[in-house]
């Protein structure tokens, strides 16, 4: 899916290409998650260390991004170079948004809720942040991280869902909350209800009462579908910054896993008895 998305090049007119390539890229549909990387950051070759090994035609792709590409070459190789320029800009973007200036720009988008809100009802419309599940291109698509439930979700739009997660990296949202701790939402506790949230709560309570009144239906899927097997296979997202798990989150997750292990042991004992 990622490869198809990268190959799906927007058809821009000559007038569009006569403007800044970055401005054209940011204004293209599906690129709303990206922020503008300042030109002085791109022109500092130290910031681009190692990217020449990741991108084919690196020098020409960089010239295209900075609007320094020769017009004759651009006409001949525009399509192929545009794919590589998108890849290069995405990888530069992942490095830029973890700098002080990059975090500030993404903070503005976070406050405008440009990345959407958490679909989990109990998170009460907490704004989301983009995150990658891998720092290597072409491995995982971008996901959206909720700081309240500490889980990740797929974007609603297929355009956004096809963006490479490496263009945002695995550390960005957690570093943002580390730099701006006042933005970190509480894990629990009431939030001032609005009329819409009250209606939502009443609707959910009615649904829960209706579920309790209905008979419980169990689905048998064989031995591999046992409760214990499902619990053991359950995956959870682990917030990390540059590969290291956050201290407070790590302590909380160790406690949660200990509780889960005790519950699994109880389930195994019950299954043995049955």
Brief account:
This protein is mostly helical and 274 residues long.
Name the descriptors.
274 residues, mainly alpha, 3-stranded antiparallel beta sheet
Note the topology:
Layout: H1 2-7, H2 14-18, H3 21-27, H4 39-43, H5 58-65, H6 71-96, H7 100-111, E1 128-131, E2 143-146, E3 152-153, H8 158-161, H9 172-179, H10 195-213, H11 227-233, E4 240-241, E5 244-245, H12 247-273
Antiparallel strand pairs: 1-2, 2-3, 4-5
Helix pairs in contact: 5-6, 11-12
Walk me through what this model shows.
This protein has 274 residues and is mainly alpha-helical. The protein is 49% helix and 5% strand. The chain has twelve helices and five strands. The protein has helices at 2-7, 14-18, 21-27, 39-43, 58-65, 71-96, 100-111, 158-161, 172-179, 195-213, 227-233, 247-273; strands at residues 128-131, 143-146, 152-153, 240-241, 244-245. A three-stranded antiparallel sheet has the order 1-2-3, with no helix packed on it. Strands 4-5 form a two-stranded antiparallel sheet. Helix 11 (227-233) packs antiparallel against helix 12 (247-273).
């Amino acid at each position: 899916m990622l490869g198809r998305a990268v190959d799906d090049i927007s058809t821009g007119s000559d007038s569009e290409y006569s403007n800044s390539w970055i401005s054209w890229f940011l204004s293209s549909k599906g690129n709303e998650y990206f922020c503008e990387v300042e030109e002085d950051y791109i022109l500092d070759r130290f910031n681009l260390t190692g990217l020449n090994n990741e991108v084919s035609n690196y020098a020409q792709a960089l010239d295209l991004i900075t609007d320094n590409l020769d017009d004759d070459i651009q006409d001949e190789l525009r399509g192929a170079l545009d794919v590589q320029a998108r890849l290069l800009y995405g990888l530069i973007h992942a490095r830029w948004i973890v700098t002080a200036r990059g975090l500030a720009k993404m903070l503005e988008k976070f406050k405008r809720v440009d990345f959407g809100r958490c679909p989990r009802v109990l998170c009460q419309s907490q704004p989301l942040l983009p995150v990658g599940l891998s720092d290597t291109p072409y491995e995982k698509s971008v996901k959206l991280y909720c700081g309240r439930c500490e889980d990740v979700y797929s974007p609603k739009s297929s355009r956004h869902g096809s963006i490479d997660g490496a263009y945002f990296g695995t550390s960005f949202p957690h570093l943002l909350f580390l730099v701006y701790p006042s933005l970190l939402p509480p894990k629990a506790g009431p939030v001032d209800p609005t009329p819409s949230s009250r209606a939502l709560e009443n609707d959910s309570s009615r649904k829960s009462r209706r579920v309790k009144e209905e008979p419980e239906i169990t689905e048998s899927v064989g031995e591999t579908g046992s409760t214990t097997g499902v619990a053991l296979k359950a995956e959870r997202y682990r917030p990390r910054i540059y590969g290291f798990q956050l201290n407070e989150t790590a302590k909380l997750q160790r406690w949660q896993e200990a509780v889960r292990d005790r519950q699994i042991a109880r389930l195994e004992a019950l299954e043995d008895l049955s």
